[in-house]
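Quick note —
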Amino acid sequence: MKRGILNTQIGKIENIPLNINTSRNMVALSFDINEVKKSFLNEYYTSYLTDIGNKLDVYEVIVGAGMYLMHGTIIPHEIVCIEIEAKSDYVYFVFVLENNRSYGIIDDESLIQLIPIFSLQQMAFIRKKGSFMHLHLDKNKPSTVFEMSFSVDYLLDLLSEKHFLYQKLNISRDRLNSSLLYDFPTVLDPKMKSILYDMIYCRYSEVAKNLYIKGKLLEFFALLQIQMENKIALTTTTVVSKIERQRMMEAKDIILANLLFPPTIVELARLLGTNACYLKQNFKLVFGSTIYGYIKQVKMERARKLLMQKNNINEVARVIGYKHANHFSAAFKKHFGYVPNKVG
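Predicted structure written out below.
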């Protein structure tokens, strides 16, 4: 059976029918960080529609020396999952901007470990040569992400030998399967998102852009390190039960369903059968953000997407709940670090 193939600079994407008698399909992708090491700085944009209706819009920045950035959207029409094969060892960071997704990795006991990543969260994996990872997406829901991939040696050079991630990366050299770099997701706060967009939309010349992106990456990892240290300190003293975690998932769903007129914390706590204190504490533990901070993040991300679609600033302000465009512009700049008319 004929396969539709998309070749990028780094990997190859194929539509592989799992069963000729059904519409269930898998997409296979191979990724080789060694190809990144050979390049100085290259940029690629790919827009691709498969023969079964899966749409991919991908912008790649190959920084060189083992650093790769990608900003993209997948709209799955008939996808069951995406299977990603690692052609060499590397570290993979994923930052989810729109809609939840789940990754499946095989652990050392040959069991599939499913890791959900919710909107506006980030997770990292250590990928091992020859191992496979499955990405699960919701049908017909656009999934927008930033991805960063690095050679193991590159990250080791950034870390102290006493750092827990340094030790984990070294231990991973002897493992056969992929694993989590750390055991909990981190939140994409406004400063971190601003850095990601700065790297993607940088319009400097080749040499200046290469230096600029490398500097921004160091700044990003510093913020990520601070967040991880705070998260570790918090989780060592507080554990969220499975029941409370599910309750926080319900809280998130209620918020997203009533984004323009969200319930107050007291009202939300009453709907969930808990009290405001526990709600605020557990929500931050699960999502890494306060409830009001999460609402603002979602609103601003929706606003940015609407602006990229060339919508009028006044209209975007109204859609996300601002009566005055100047108030929206001020909030947008505070959140992302640049004014709305710079988007696009």
